[in-house]
Structure formats: C-alpha cells, structure tokens
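ok so dumb question maybe but i'm new to this and my supervisor (M.) told me to 'just get the structure for Glyoxal reductase' and walked off. so i did the thing. is this what she meant?? sequence i used:
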Amino acid sequence: MTAIQRNSDTTVLNNGVRMPWLGLGVWKTKEGDEVVHAVQHALEAGYRSIDTAAVYGNEAGVGQAIQASSIPRDQLFVTTKVWNADQGYDSTLRAFEESRRKLQLEVIDLYLIHWPGKDKYKETWKALEKLYKDGLVRAIGVSNFKVHHLEDLLQDSEIVPAVNQVEFHPLLIQQELRTFCKEHKIQLEAWSPLMQGNLDLPLLSELAGKYGKTPAQIILRWDLQHGVITIPKSIRESRIRENIDVFDFTLSDEDMARLDGLNQDHRFGPDPDHIDF
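this is what came out, is it supposed to look like this??
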C-alpha cells in the first residue's frame, strides 16, 4: 500500500521525473472561461498537475490559465495527448507542435498516445521517442493500452512508457494490467476515477460515513493507496477543492480490500479493443 500523506508528494517515473499523485482532468471542460477558471481554481487549491488532450479542444485555455498563474513553470506538470486521427510519425510531430503552440509551453511534461487505435501506434511511439530525445517532452507514455498493446509496443521500442493512463475505479480494478505495469515500471494513472458520477454504491456511502469524507474522496484515496495517479475532473471550485482534500486520512487494509471486491470489470468508457474513432 502506498503511503501518500501530502499533496506535495510525488511519484518518480521510470526516467527519474517526478509527477504529482493528484491532478485536474479537463475532459469535457469547455474552451474559454470554463476551462480557464477550472485550472485557476485548481492551481489556487494546490493542484500542480493538469491533464488535457488535443481532442478536448481546450489546450489554449489551459495554456492561458498557466500563463496567468504566478506559480513557477518548474512546479507545474502538464500532460497532453496525440489524438487518433494524428497518429503516425510525421503527423504526430505536427500535432505535438500544435499542442505546444496552444499551451504556450516550450516543453511538455508528459505526452501520451491517447488510444492504441488500429495499426499506427508503433510509428507514433517513434515520434514520441524523438520528441523525448530532443528535450521537448520530459516524459512519454500511453493511454488506454491493454497488456497486449504494451507487450507489442515494448518489442520494438527504445524507451519504456513512463505512464499508462486508463479507466480505473472500484468497478474496474484492472488487476492484470496493474501487475504488468508494476513489473515494467510503468506508472498507472486513472481517468474517470469517479465513474462519471456513478457514486451511489452502498459501500461508498458506508465508508464515507466511517471516515467523515465524501464517496468521491473515498475513491480518490483508494486510488492513491494503490499507487495509482488520479486526475478527477470538475469545473466547480467547491468540488475541485473537495477532490484534493484526501491527504488527511488513510483507508484500512480491510476497507481497501472491500473496495477492490466491488470489481465487475465494468467500463463507463470505450473498450480499447473496440474503438471506432
């Protein structure tokens, strides 16, 4: 069980780069004021990691909020992702430059392949390796890769992905994938940790009462104690502050196991093996 007691605690990725355990996700956050304010609220609340993606359409707003912040750049960790339509070597390099321009950043902290897609992720990975060697990204990784995708990628790659960002929550505990990633020093990161708001589970309510926390805070703490980075999404300041208030309690081993027992291998998002976009 991972001991994480402060928001300033970081995990060390396989290349030595430090990454915050908790960040703000901005999926479905509208470009413009909505995303700018969400990122500003998060930075004010103590978040130092922001996760966006080209397909979210809000990189410019994320960049605007970062530029307006007084927080030194080296204290922030910014992730973005290459979209499926841009996969391939040259097109990935072009997509990266577009993301960098919108974010107004010289260097991106973490660049991910958003989905494995059909047949181009090895070419895409070669582009990410170049960006890393050129010093334009501090770490490279993947998102939504299953074990077989990772095995395939590792056969021809020079660099092992630093991160694999996947759907992860008590109804989808991804045990096989977590074991594989741990063995290969690939840091797991959870998207949709709060199950897209489907929190009405009796056990979550019970544990929220026991620990004096909300069901969302119980799940986020469960993520952290499993050694999984988590990036809950919200645009409301009160919820953004609530989601980071998870460093002052610890779930017991028994309660961790009970939450694991909720697993149904249930996905709220697409199955990476069956995506058609």
